[in-house]
Amino acid sequence: xxxxxxxxxxxxxxxxxxxxxxxxxxxxxxxxxxxxxxxxxxxxxxxxxxxxxxxxxxxxxxxxxxxxxxxxxxxxxxxxxxxxxxxxxxxxxxxxxxxxxxxxxxxxxxxxxxxxxxxxxxxxxxxxxxxxxxxxxxxxxxxxxxxxxxxxxxxxxxxxxxxxxxxxxxxxxxxxxxxxxxxxxxxxxxxxxxxxxxxxxxxxxxxxxxxxxxxxxxxxxxxxxxxxxxxxxxxxxxxxxxxxxxxxxxxxxxxxxxxxxxxxxxxxxxxxxxxxxxxxxxxxxxxxxxxxxxxxxxxxxxxxxxxxxxxxxxxxxxxxxxxxxxxxxxxxxxxxxxxxxxxxxxxxxxxxxxxxxxxxxxxxxxxxxxxxxxxxxxxxxxxxxxxxxxxxxxxxxxxxxxxxxxxxxxxxxxxxxxxxxxxxxxxxxxxxxxxxxxxxxxxxxxxxxxxxxxxxxxxxxxxxxxxxxxxxxxxxxxxxxxxxxxxxxxxxxxxxxxxxxxxxxxxxxxxxxxxxxxxxxxxxxxx
Length: 527
Hints:
The protein is an alpha+beta fold. It has two domains: 214 residues, Beta-Lactamase (2-Layer Sandwich), CATH 3.30.450; 179 residues, no CATH class. Strands 2-1-5-4-3-6-7 form a seven-stranded antiparallel beta sheet, sandwiched between helices. A five-stranded antiparallel beta sheet has the order 14-15-20-17-18, with helices on one face. It starts with a helix and ends in a 22-residue tail after the last strand. The C terminus is likely disordered.
């Protein structure tokens, strides 16, 4: 295929995914999707290989090929109008709040490929509002489990399955709205992909998908070839001691990412299925080796991931995995970056905050007694780079979401944001300083709320590089008028009475380069 046509098709396919995401965000019901944009969309070929994606959430997109593969395997006779839904981490999913829609696309009876839309739902059942119970010891406590099943068959909704799904969540109206938004997204994707095939022909479209993957494979192979031959090891832990260890080996045959030596899976919700581990690896490879490589199936063909079963990086049923998608994925990034920093130190930043600071609040509204469930991740400090300071108050790495605007939060929920500011000085010192974390205080109004935290880097600190100092750890507090502030564990659930305030204070990023206080050069001014 000539380069011009290939480039046009590549951008067109990416545009299909971007338009899907726009439709999902604009039609969603919950603030978590319509404001924070906690959703992702992608396009796949008839064999279920990723051909293009929107620039959405890294932890969603890297894991989505596993979901599509499971959906294709479960539906060997796809029909126009089918929509498969799934969230089972052991059958293609990542964690239960992430519901994925997969739809086949046809033109005049010919299968063109698949479109997929994933969204994080603010509640899918389980023992606590928000479906991220920090005390979960098995996956059944984390919410409703959906293996790949057809929710729409040939365009007709399965009403029985729909009722079962909504009966198992605390906020069925909100869930119904978000699910309908996902349906809108796959409808847009199917329409646009069929339009491309109608314009260029199904054969040219299929040829273009193959050529795009081959091009990405060549680019990533070339980028891997620029690495020195050798092995680099790094390890880090979550606050409770779960270890992630990696050895990256560059050989003539390609690149091996080996997680042998990581901790066994645990009876805590910080385990990751293989899909999540792979997504973190793919993110690191693209950002370190070639940020411009098209993120499709071809880009990862020269990479071998070794993740022993039964470990925190490749958990087996029925281990809880709610926080693996959120917290362990961030630590996987930290260790892969730490290993790459030994090979290509000029391309790797110091550690960012290393957590998503997951916060869920749920209860009932005082005015009408209806339930609510609020979820958000909270930004922190980004790690410094060799040539610039880290950004402050920024979502980094495996999360690519936004904050919940105060106005939207207070309009939708019986909550009030009392304080929202940077934490000056929490970034690690260095020739280039790490970014600062945030402080976000939320007051509970009306009735008692159940509050769950799933966060990390409250004990361990985000590392610095090249002599830079680590970022400050985070803190979490419960403040009740007339009582001394109470320090909360980073992973736990607490009942908060009306007028109680939850204060989440996020970590800073690591610094880069030996700071002047330890005999290094003075920090250069950022232009």
